[in-house]
From TrEMBL, chain A:
GO terms for biological process: DNA strand elongation involved in mitotic DNA replication. One of its GO terms (cellular component) is GINS complex. Its main location: nucleus. This is GINS subunit domain-containing protein. It comes from Aegilops tauschii subsp. strangulata. Residues 24-109 form the GINS subunit domain. It holds the Pfam family Sld5.
From TrEMBL, chain B:
Residues 69-135 form the GINS subunit domain. Belongs to the GINS4/SLD5 family. SUPFAM superfamilies: GINS helical bundle-like, PriA/YqbF domain. Residues 163-217 form the DNA replication complex GINS protein SLD5 C-terminal domain. InterPro entries: GINS_A (IPR021151), GINS_bundle-like_dom_sf (IPR036224), GINS_Sld5 (IPR008591), SLD5_C (IPR031633), Sld5_GINS_A (IPR038749). This is DNA replication complex GINS protein SLD5. One of its GO terms (biological process) is DNA-templated DNA replication. One of its GO terms (cellular component) is GINS complex. Signal peptide: none annotated. The GINS complex plays an essential role in the initiation of DNA replication. It is found in: Nucleus. Keywords: DNA replication, Nucleus.
Length: 127, 217
């Protein structure tokens, strides 16, 4: 989570620089949309770096969430300690809420979907 | 012997439209298709009734001490049907989880889900949104804190994962379709004759799959 905080801080700095450059352009009474001076490009770089950081962070969290979801299906509603140590607080909450969403679906449908599905051998003979 | 053959062929033609066959077909299609297909609620409820019936029959048999072979045959049938149903529902849930934002934001896709699946999809999306906002977006500066858009300057939802409709799938035609245009350019025309096996892009045959004239394998 150190790296995470670092990235967040970087985003904040990018934004600050971005805002400063935009303000500078506005003070010079330049039209933000169309002017193409060095300030514009500086602002564009800050904006795009910020976007890239956001994409990286979101992708990281999203993929971790996908793995967490797969735990629920493979292991069940209670996670072993080794895994729990590696999740941050929001992820633990995500796991809990997602678990209960699955549980309500299962109880609504009245079929247990977390049972390991073994492919019946009889399929091979009878199709 | 000839009576057996008659029964066999009668059974074969009946099997073509039994619920198990329909369920198997729905399961195969769902497995191979990259996007979520229409939910057949009538079929699912009939399948559940059948499962219940099979379970009751099995209980009767074990009470009455029926021959083991017959019991194991019925047990196999029960296992198969249960597996099909569970796998079908599980596949759909997996697709919902994978494309939760895409599905929850599209009326058309939502209408393909059963009522319970719709509730599940909505709560999935909300849980994910809350999680992402808590951990990432609340710390980002204003203007960048949308889950589905990169920033205020994005003109559309560009951070939503969508299913790849271009993937190739194996398919088998059930009846004659005739000359079929594969893409908008009009360059590739494929003659679809009954019971032929093809490997095509899913997008091109999407309409035919929905109409039930092509089966995915």
């Amino acid at each position: 989570s150190d790296v995470f905080d670092q990235v967040i801080r970087e985003c904040g700095e990018h934004n600050a620089q971005f805002q400063a450059l935009i303000r500078k352009m506005v003070e010079q009474n330049l039209d933000i949309e169309t002017t193409r001076n060095e300030d514009h490009y500086g602002a564009a770089i800050h904006h795009l770096s910020l976007l890239r950081n956001k994409r990286c962070l979101m992708a990281y969290m999203y993929n971790r969430a996908e793995t967490i979801r797969s735990f629920r299906w493979k292991i069940g509603p209670v996670l072993p300690h080794e895994i729990q140590e590696k999740l941050n607080f929001s992820e633990k909450e995500y796991f809990r809420s997602h678990s209960s969403a699955i549980k309500s679906y299962i109880s609504e449908m009245d079929i247990d979907l977390t049972v390991v599905c073994i492919f019946p051998v009889s399929f091979i003979f009878w199709g | 012997m000839s009576s057996w053959e008659d029964e066999d062929s009668a059974a074969a033609s009946a099997a073509a439209t039994t619920d198990v066959e329909l369920l198997k077909r729905a399961w195969r299609n769902e497995k191979a298709a990259p996007e979520i297909l229409h939910f057949d609620s009538a079929l699912v409820s009939r399948a559940r009734e059948q499962i219940q019936l099979l379970e009751e029959t099995l209980d009767d048999f074990t009470d009455n001490g029926v021959d083991d072979l017959v019991v194991s045959l019925y047990q196999m049938d029960l296992d198969r049907t249960l597996f099909l149903l569970r796998s079908y529902l599980r596949l759909r849930l997996q697709k919902i989880e994978k494309y939760m934002f895409h599905i929850a934001n599209s009326e058309d896709l939502l209408s393909r889900l059963s009522q319970q699946e719709q509730r599940f999809a909505k709560s999935c999306k909300e849980i994910m949104e809350k999680h992402l906002e808590q951990s990432v977006l609340s710390k980002l500066p204003y203007g960048y804190d949308s889950v589905t858009r990169q920033s205020l300057s994005s003109t559309e939802d560009d951070m939503v994962p969508e299913p790849q409709l271009d993937t190739f799938v194996f398919c088998k035609t059930k009846s004659d379709v005739g000359a079929f245009q594969l893409d908008d350019v009009g360059e590739e025309v494929v003659d679809l004759v009954a019971d032929d096996l093809y490997v095509l892009r899913y997008k091109s045959i999407k309409g035919l799959v929905e109409a039930g004239r092509i089966d995915l394998i």
